[in-house]
Amino acid sequence: MAQYKPVTISKEGFAFCRFGLTAVVWLSLALHSQLLLLTVLIVLLLSAILKVQRAPMIVLYDQTAGRLRKSNEVIVNETAMRFAHFTGAFFALVCLLLLQFGSERSGWAAVFIFALVKSVSAFGFCPASKLFECVTGGGCCTIRKKP
To answer: What is the pTM (predicted TM-score) of this model?
Structure first.
């Protein structure tokens, strides 16, 4: 059973990461750019490996705009975010593999679904993070709750 591991990160950096990657996924779909999708894969993979407090997009924000404007902080579950980043990287990899070895139509359909899921995540409801917390006993699953 994974433990809740709280970490503090900048709220605006976290938002920049969520919305920025979502925008790149949508741009990849609009331009049919596999290179942009590969960029998302790399950023998500690095975020998972380096953990959320050293995620490339958050560090980029904190070292640029974050220096000009003081950011509020937010506490997130490091292990859940790591799982979410690995899940996103896996989803991006599946999309790229479909584009390379499957039909192009199914590949771009998968990218569309990925863009929708990233959009939901960007607005604050991260399905992968919620799934992780639910499965590891975070209490979000109504089936597992005891009366």
So the answer is: 0.85
